[in-house]
Amino acid sequence: MRALAILSAILLTCSACRRAPAGHGETDAQPAVGGEGTTGAARLLDIENRRVVAGITDQDVSNPDPAVRRLAARALARLGSPTAVPMLLQALSDEDGEVVSWAAHGLSYVCRLDAVNVSDVVRALATRAVTLPPRLSGPLDTTFAIARGLGRCASEDAERTLVAWLTGPQPRAGYAALALGDVASRRKSLADVTHAALLSAAAPADAAAGAVEALYPFGRLEQIPKVFSDRLLAAASATLRRPGPQRIFAIRALSRVGQGAVAELGRVLTRGDTYSAVERAEAARGLARVSLGDDAQRALSQALPTLVPARDAIALTTLGTEAFGPLLVALEGLRAPLRPLGAEPALYELARLPLPKEAPATLTRRIVRLRCRAASLLVNGVAEDPLLLQCDPDPEGSIGRRAQLEVIGRRLLEGRRLTLYRKLVDSPHARVREAAIELLAGHPEVEETPIILGHALGAKEV
Fold it and tell me: Coil, strand, or helix at residue 119?
């Protein structure tokens, strides 16, 4: 259960820090009706909604009623102003866990601002972490909030502090690993000593079960130093054998390893009996990474026949999330022009999938997306190929027209291709027009770009 809670917190980006803390309106921590606290609570909620920094006073932060202090800390956290730092630091030393959690969240937000001394914030968070009593009141996890606060500050001192926590007790060690993912996201890199510490936590030398959270930061990087590739491959591969919601961290980490991870990712993609649709789709997304090269494209091509549904109507009606997600991501991961890797037969099957009569709109859209993506790969750069033009039963449908637009963009926009582009950039579908505008970034040969952009800026949807 703790693992599931941690994963949910990562995937939802600390949802607890974005909502009103659980317990308001339903616990005895609320201000007494008719007392001073009631007026103070209403005032603090108004300040929070209006983002008025000057409205919060030291008396609010030190109010004897913990409910008022919670509201004050939450309002300060959401203001995002450097002027709130002194009171946030005061709230950080509070005896109520929810107050401390909101203070840590607020400090992690303001430490991104140039006017704030990040070192002071990091030092305050680290000091408060080691002075926390064994148990604090409140529904929020204070240790988690402080760890994530350090991660979002993302300084070198914060990184070193979190690395030191990796060898400490749980759950703080796991929280530190997740927070290092925040550091990786912010700075796009980690120190070599951090890589080594994370790998030691993920695959301990004594063969004990590693902390799966330690693989999360690797998935937030574009690439890792080659010296750590073999260890990461071994740690992530071992984690794949252990079912659990955090297994997706291992799949994401594998896509950063390089060529050695292709076989493992291909195995995950094709094992629908072992891995969930989300995990298989993530494996397909990993194989699509350019850094994995032709071997990864070959793995996607070889996996495609196992993902394609049968053509009969009954089989197509089962094209739910479990089948559709991995298949679509795998299709989108293949790159045109196709190499002779054996994907063509499966692509032709997909491009000619029948539309069941009286099929639900959701199923129809899914089949059309598969048909049009497969057709766009097969026709390469021939934007008026019948296979592509007929993939969407609606001649002006947005799915088919966006597929045609993607094919057009593979070559210079000139002559007949430019004529087709002009038609699509004036499509009645906003999403088609948006895709057409995005295409211009890679086509400097289009001389009328300023006119097209000016027209788009005047669109009614702006």
Answer: helix
Enumerate residues 6+ apart whose C-beta is below 8 A from 2.
171, 174
Tell if the pTM clears 0.85, that is, is over it: no
pLDDT band at 162 (very low <50, low <70, confident <90, very high): very high
Q: Which amino acid does the sequence have at 135?
A: R
Read out DSSP for 405-451? HHHHTTS---THHHHHHHHHHT-SSHHHHHHHHHHGGG-TT-TTHHH
Average pLDDT, the chain: 86
Q: Tokens 């925040």 belong to which residue? A: 182
pLDDT at 21 over 80: no
- pLDDT bracket for residue 25 (50, 70, 90): very low
Amino acid identity of 357? K
- How far is C-alpha 263 from the geometric centre of its chain's CA atoms? 24
Contact between 152 and 175 under an 8 Å Cβ cutoff? The reply is: no
Q: With CA atoms as reference, report the closest residue to 372 among 354, 394, 350, 356.
A: 350
Average pLDDT of the residues in 93-116: 92
Query: 173 with 216: CB under 8 angstroms?
Result: no
Task: Check residue 342 and report its DSSP letter.
Answer: S
CB 69 within 8 A of CB 94: yes
The span from the first CA to the last CA of the chain, in angstroms, equals 45
Q: What is the pLDDT of residue 32?
A: 32
**Cβ atoms of residues 268 and 280 within 8 Å:** yes
Q: 128 vs 60, 68, 163, 247, CA distance in Å? A: 21, 21, 17, 32
Q: Tokens at residue 330, please?
A: 């795998």
Residues 6 or more apart from 166 whose CB is under 8 A from it?
Answer: 173, 176, 177, 197, 198, 200, 201, 211, 214
5: pLDDT confidence band, cut at 50, 70 and 90? very low
∠ CA 18-13-150, nearest 5°, is 90
Q: Rounded distance, CA 370 to CA 127, Å? A: 54
**How far, in Å, CA of 376 to CA of 294, rounded?**
20
Bond before 171 cis per omega within 30 degrees = yes
